[in-house]
Amino acid sequence: MVKVFIPLSGDPSTLGHRRLYDYAKFAFPDAELYIGLGNNTNKRYLFSFDDRMEMAQRTFDDSSLNIISAPDSDSANVVTYEGMLAGFSRENAFDVIIRGVRGPADVDAEMNIHNVGKKQMMGKQRIKTHDRDVTGPVTVFIPADQDMTDVSSSTGKEIQRAQGSTEGYFTPFVKQRVEAKISSQYFVGVMGVEAAGKSYVSLQAQKLAEKRGIPIHIIDLDYLGHEILEESTEDLYKNVRLELIDVFEEDIRSGEDDEYFIDRKKLGRIVFDNPAKMDILNEIMYEPLMYKYEKEKSGEDKKGLIFVNGALLPEFGLTYLMNHNIVNVTADGGTVTKRLRDKKGYNSDQITRRTKSQFTAAEKYNTVKDRITEEDSGEIWSFDNSEDAEMDKQLNKMLDDIILKMDIYGELRFMGLWNRIGADGTYEDEYNKLIGGYSEPHRKYHIPQHIIDMLNLFAEAKQDVGHLMTNPDATEVAIWYHDYWLKKRSRVNEKISSNIVYKVCTDARLNVDFAEDVKNRVCATRHPDDLDNFDNYDDQVIADIDTAIFGMDEDAFNKYEQQIIQEFAWADKKEFTTIRIEILEKFRKREHIFYTDYIRNKLNKNNVTFEEQARANLDMSLEQLYLNLEEL
Known about the structure:
Blueprint: E1 3-8, H1 15-27, E2 32-38, H2 49-59, E3 77-81, H3 85-91, E4 96-101, H4 104-121, E5 126-129, E6 132-135, E7 138-143, H5 153-161, H6 172-183, E8 185-191, H7 198-211, E9 216-220, H8 221-230, H9 235-248, H10 264-271, H11 275-297, E10 304-309, H12 313-316, E11 325-330, H13 333-342, H14 348-356, H15 361-375, E12 379-384, H16 391-406, H17 411-420, H18 428-438, H19 448-465, H20 472-481, H21 493-507, H22 512-524, H23 537-546, H24 554-567, H25 573-588, H26 597-600, H27 610-631
Parallel strand pairs: 1-2, 1-4, 2-3, 4-7, 8-10, 8-11, 9-10, 11-12
Antiparallel strand pairs: 5-6
């Protein structure tokens, strides 16, 4: 069977890559198709390899893509390679290499790569064809379609740096990550029928988020539309108003001045009774509204959550702007009617007309759900804003869920933490320093994802046992720094990390008591045998969530084990095995592996308690380690 290979960096994967992949499947329907994510140690990637892998899976719309799965006609293996493509291709006996080209410059560059690769082959891989030998593999160039000639990872990233629109470059799943990585922005749409209370819910969420130190910037698309019709004096918007006056052929002007502003009530009487005219209005307003929106969301001061309010997000097909992450604000019929009558002064006929001109609440919800399914991206958070609804409980849960879903790199939470504790200066430098430290090349497990996993568990712990904690903010700071110093052959990593974070706290003008608390929490992750070594419950919690991986399901634990082995690849195997046995036996010999009842009794995804699963995982690991030691 022919083996076809598509090499790319995937930093990140683009819609151009997906088009290339689809063409490769079409051209070689019976081939073993491989996607190769290059790992050039001299290149600085924006995204980690795990990120690039996940984005490739989503971009190629093929969840079966992974490193070791067997190929079939509907999927591809994703492999990683280092060094020269030619050597990797020869080693794996690929028959065809697919390269996409967007124009003459790409052709020249790819031809050079192709010819260098041929020389690297040294004539050792040959394909017999008729009476001649041809050096393989064969490189096939696939030209980009006209709509893809500008689509590349680098172009998409540059557009995002300018805070432009990357629709047409990335899938929503990838777009969301590019926005977070480059612009520190996290977009959430807020939709609902008229008078459901979108603006009110957004403002209440903003106030709650501010208490946590996390900014929420609210963009109201309805208000931007009002500006276009009634206020904006730029030529684009003046011309839009002139077009509306010409198209509707009725007096919808608010006055006779030079700008020809529009009276929205007059316009509303025309379009709310006529779906066809409403469609015309929406079509004319779309482009200027997008210009307003792009301007409104841009700027260095717009980091954080961006709530985009819009009554007609599904009707306009605008949920892609928020990557289909939507808060769906609802209210019972009686509440909606009362608000329309009492607050907006509508009579029964007006209420009926306006209600018929929009999707129902169910239609809005179902439209977004369909887009989420189609695009494999997004989530809906339902919020009941009826008169008798429990606001505070809903708001806290909604905000917790949004942060858990969207803050995949931890920046929102670090931003909030830094602001909340009153640290001196802005958070960016310290956050970037932390991420850089946790991204050192020798790290495989103690990486940013380990911190995110701990933060997620800590958020749950605060909800469930927060009343037992003395200083949750100090514990959260300690989570960020507990493995910051991780050097080869060092047995004092936690000690040095604790000294570093103490200095960070005092340099940030935080009081000495807070700095001491943080330092003690970091030292708690050395996991002493005696509970007397802990000052308080917070110490026990951070120690437990640090080793919570012991209680995860067997697949997650096995992945962790492999990452630890890779992280200590520099060590002598016998020395590593001996030390690893010593560490794990320390945990296994305890009466309880975890310090707190909370983590002991917590259920993993297989509905097994963490304590029980940890016993099984440690037994399995130690059995293998002792066998390995005998063989060394």
